[in-house]
Amino acid sequence: MDMTRVTEFWENYKTKSATNPNLYISGNSLNVILPNNLLEYANAAAGHSGFGAGARARGIRRSVDNAQQAIKDIFETPQSLAKFLESSEKNADAYVEGIRARDLGTAIDQRSANDSWSELYAKYDINTLANTFGRNAVIDARKLLTVNEFELRFGLALAAYIRG
After folding, report:
1. Would you say the pTM of this structure is higher than 0.70?
2. What is the pLDDT of residues 94-108, one digit of tens each?
3. 98 found inside a domain
4. How far apart are CA 137 and CA 66, in angstroms?
5. Within this chain, do residues 55 and 120 fall inside the same structural domain, yes or no?
6. Does the N-terminal or the C-terminal CB of the chain have fewer CB atoms within 10 Å?
7. Domain that holds residue 145
């Protein structure tokens, strides 16, 4: 890991958070938006920006018990920030490729995730998804998303949603 890039990000956070103490905090979640030079650590849970060929990863999203304390712990030192980055699933690349494929017209599975739940449950380790992203996030995704959107949301294998 390039600690120069991590330290620059840490210093930037310290400057911004002085006037915005809730930076990257959303309820019981953290959504740490990474600089372009650290996007290799991004996870699918953080979503994406842009569409088609311009889609790119955003950062690292986590559900936590105490967001204020978690963000304080993460940005305590450059080393604690590096540890947080290393703990990421680093699965945004597959997610973004799926967004690009979807936006460029690749055939996708539009069935309801809820209606296809037994298939999804057999195909993926749902308990690990729930532990990683939060049980409620998985339940909500099941209820609201298509199979393709569910797979994209959790960064599941690109081959799973490219059909054809």
Report:
1. no
2. 676 666 666 555 556
3. no
4. 17
5. no
6. C
7. 107-161
The set of residues, in sequence order, having a beta carbon less than 8 Å from that of 52 and lying 6+ positions away, is 100, 103, 104
Report the number of distinct structural domains present in the chain: 2
Query: In whole angstroms, what separates CA 145 from the centre of its chain?
Result: 16
Query: Do 63 and 20 sit in the same domain of this protein?
Result: yes
C-alpha 44 chain-centroid distance: 3
Q: Report yes or no: 153 and 146 within 8 Å, Cβ to Cβ.
A: no
Q: 71: exposed, middle or buried (C-beta count within 10 Å: 0-12, 13-18, 19+)?
A: buried
Q: Are residues 74 and 129 in the same domain?
A: no
Lowest average pLDDT, out of 11-15, 20-24, 33-37, 44-48, goes to 44-48
User: Taking all residues of the chain, what is their mean pLDDT, rounded to a whole number?
Assistant: 82
Cα–Cα distance, 58 to 60 (Å, whole number): 7
DSSP string of 53-113, one letter each residue: GG-EE-EEEEE-S-HHHHHHHHTSSHHHHHHHHHTS---HHHHHHHHHHHHTT-----SBT
Question: Residue 14: what pLDDT?
Answer: 96
pLDDT in tens, 62-92: 989 999 999 999 999 999 999 999 998 887 7
Unique residue bearing structure tokens 């840490």: 10
Q: Answer yes or no: is 99 within a domain.
A: no
**Whether residues 7 and 84 fall in one domain:** yes
